[in-house]
Amino acid sequence: MKSNIVLIGFMGTGKTSVGKRLAEKLGLEFIELDQIIEGRNGKSIPDIFRDSGEIFFREEEIAAAKEVAVSEHAVIACGGGLVLNKINIDRLKINGIVVCLTASPSAILKRTDKESGARPLLAVEDPEETIRELILYRQPYYDRAADILIDTTDKSIEEVVSVITESLEKNESFNRQK
Ligand code: S3P
Description:
By secondary structure, the chain is of the alpha/beta class. It has 7 helices and 5 strands; from the N terminus they run E-H-E-H-H-E-H-E-H-H-E-H.
């Protein structure tokens, strides 16, 4: 039986807001991988990318995923690129049901625009084109990793949370009881 819920998906699909609400609703701990990485390095994600580059960030992400994979009864929100290194998913799946959130590129653009500067990979001249290219490359990784896939484009946070809790009720591998 698995007691964690692992949220994956592209930037701006709602992993953090949905994760916080879901954890609250189910009485689980909320863990955000990017926050762990920021805490360890004493700086923000954009500063880590700027000072040390993406390869260093991915190594930190692997270390953080390894650390939290042994948690129990937690909702774990992952960064959008976590799926690129298969060992992250292999580790998180041992005790976690993987929920992948998706959204249309234009919805992602709108959502990420509000926090411009927070996503180094989208700090480019044509972020919508970059979003499309990255999704094209990453979608097979998201699809392969997901136990549950949810399109959040036209859904509120509360609606997404309800879809997740309903799917978990039917999932025989998920153990909600502490
Ligand atoms: C990334 C997504 C970000 C963060 C980093 C890289 C990605 O997390 O981990 O900027 O490669 O998609 P969010 O998905 O929470 O924005």
